[in-house]
Automatic annotation (TrEMBL):
Domain ABC1 atypical kinase-like: residue ranges: 89-338
InterPro entries noted in UniProt: ABC1_dom, Kinase-like_dom_sf, UbiB, UbiB_bact, UbiB_kinase
Keyword ATP-binding in record: yes
Database matches in CDD domains: UbiB (cd13972)
Residues that, per the record, bind ATP: 125-133, 152
Membrane topology: Single-pass membrane protein
Primary localisation category: membrane
Name used for this protein in its record: Probable protein kinase UbiB
């Protein structure tokens, strides 16, 4: 089976003229010349190479389509023309028989479908490469039809198909790394490993259910975003049941206008929701394309499909905010030093060189009015610039850039005059003030106080352990260090007590 699949990949590679890649390698140019003697698909005649890559992936099936979609977000690795073309890939797959979905559910829970749901519609309402969605109704106390729900069911046998294709992708990645002139910089094996993790996360619907539950909890009571409730009693690794959401697809702007939805307000909501997720929660929905977003009758966004999420540390959030603020203030030196301090570029990078590179790429962006500048484009340009400096772009930042581009595209579709910077700057400034001001200090002290409270009583024991050790050469040094630490901790404890007292008094 694997040999047959490999042959299919190789023949597709040739049919779409991708052997042109061989022409880039001096030792393989003979293979490129020989392959041109064989017949090619007439569809690709005259098409540029990026288009042929997209068409080849589409012909290889849903897993390769998904791989191309993920690859399109890696603009730090791919030339722009390839990333733009791969972004056009669509994950459209015919549905499988609803009876098979019913059987999958019954096996997962060990019960007939009638004992699980009051009613289950065998006709799927949506279908993708990994799973499809059915409509159903929960039982109420009288065994009558209760709440309406969406039931997501994995495709049967999808795991074996994925493992087979991933094994072949690893082989192709090793070949690309060895044969392509830019193979090592592109890190094909690491990209495939990242895709492997992403795909296996998506195959576990309990993972998606937990993501949805977390996002819902973060936005409880929000007047901007509603997230469906998850019914964990009816969730398993291959089945997920959540609240059915009634709304209008955000792409259907004419219908939204007919319903009296304020599109300008909606576009601002999108930006505010994004920055709330990133800077307040450090946890964001990373697949916010229009197909996953609806609008409720009350004008709130509805988020769906939680297979891909991103998370940021306090460290990432701080440097991200610094970069945004420095960029829009045209402080390119601060952009450069923030990259170095955060570890996004090697520590031995000269700040002046990085500053000059950032200025060269980003200064032309300011030729446009500020309201037309794209945040996503800013990140994209910074990632492209970073190639020269061997930057290690973190996966969470790549997800962030992809999500930001989606949010911007959606926002400007709803309101072409949306000023993203005017909407985002007050949020960023307030967040930075909270982090570096007295509030941030008091919050840090309150968070660290429990750790210090357990550390202080342990110092005598640590001192006794040091005195009992045979390492006499380190004894005096260790004793001195512990005494110094004791004094420092005493001062810190006193400071904590004073600050907490002031805080309580202020209340």
């Amino acid at each position: 089976m694997r040999i047959a699949r490999f042959y299919k990949i190789f023949s597709t590679f040739h049919r779409y003229g991708l052997s042109d890649f061989f022409g880039l390698h001096p030792r393989l140019r003979w293979l490129h010349r020989a392959s041109r003697l064989l017949p090619r698909s007439s569809v690709t005649r005259g098409q540029p190479l990026p288009v042929r890559v997209r068409l080849a992936l589409e012909s290889l099936g849903p897993i390769f389509v998904k791989f191309g979609q993920v690859l399109s977000t890696r603009r730090d690795l791919l030339p722009p023309e390839y990333a733009d073309e791969l972004a056009l890939l669509q994950d459209r797959v015919p549905p499988f028989d609803g009876k098979i979905a019913r059987d999958q559910i019954e096996i997962a829970f060990g019960k007939p479908i009638k004992e699980l749901y009051a009613e289950f519609d065998l006709t799927p309402v949506a279908s993708a490469s990994v799973a499809q969605v059915h409509r159903a109704w929960l039982k109420n106390g009288n065994d009558e039809r209760g709440r309406e729900v969406a039931v997501k069911v994995l495709r049967p046998g999808i795991l074996s198909v994925i493992e087979q294709d991933l094994a072949l992708m690893r082989v192709l990645a090793r070949l690309a790394e060895r044969l392509l002139p830019d193979g090592r910089r592109l890190k094909p094996r690491e990209v495939v490993a990242e895709f492997d993790k992403y795909l296996h996360d998506e195959l576990d619907l309990m993972h998606e259910a937990a993501n949805a539950s977390q996002l819902r909890r973060n936005f409880v009571g929000s007047d901007q975003l509603v997230v469906p409730e998850v019914f964990f009693d009816l969730c398993a690794r291959n089945v997920m049941t959540m609240e059915w959401m009634h709304g209008t697809p955000v792409s259907q702007t004419d219908r939204l206008i007919e319903q009296g939805v304020d599109l300008k307000k909606l576009s601002r909501f999108g930006v505010e929701i994004f920055f709330t997720q990133v800077f307040r929660h450090g946890f964001f929905h990373a697949d916010m394309h229009p197909g996953n977003i609806f609008v409720a009758a009350d004008g709130r966004y509805i988020a769906l499909d939680f297979g891909i999420v991103g998370s940021l540390t306090e460290y990432d959030k701080r440097y991200l905010a610094i970069n945004f603020l420095a960029f829009f203030n045209r402080d390119y030196h601060r952009v450069a030093t923030a990259h170095i301090e955060s570890g996004w570029v090697p520590k031995d990078t000269r700040a002046e060189e990085l500053e000059a590179a950032v200025r060269t790429v980003c200064e032309p962006i300011f030729e446009k009015p500020l309201s037309q500048i794209s945040f996503g484009l800013v990140l994209l340009r910074l990632f492209e610039t970073s190639r020269r400096f061997n930057v290690e772009i973190q996966p969470q930042l790549v997800l962030l850039q992809k999500t930001l581009l989606n949010i911007e595209g959606l926002g400007r579709q709803l309101d072409p005059d949306l000023d993203l910077w005017a909407t985002a700057k007050p949020f960023l400034v307030k967040w930075m003030n909270e982090q570096i001001g007295w509030r941030g200090l008091l919050r840090t002290l309150k968070n660290e106080a429990p750790d210090w409270a357990t550390t202080l009583p342990a110092i005598p024991r640590k001192l006794n352990e040091a005195l009992s050790a045979d390492h006499t050469g380190l004894l005096i040094e260790g004793y001195t260090q512990l005494m110094r630490e004791q004094k420092r901790q005493n001062w810190l404890l006193a400071l904590i007590a004073v600050l907490l007292g002031l805080l309580l008094f202020a209340r």
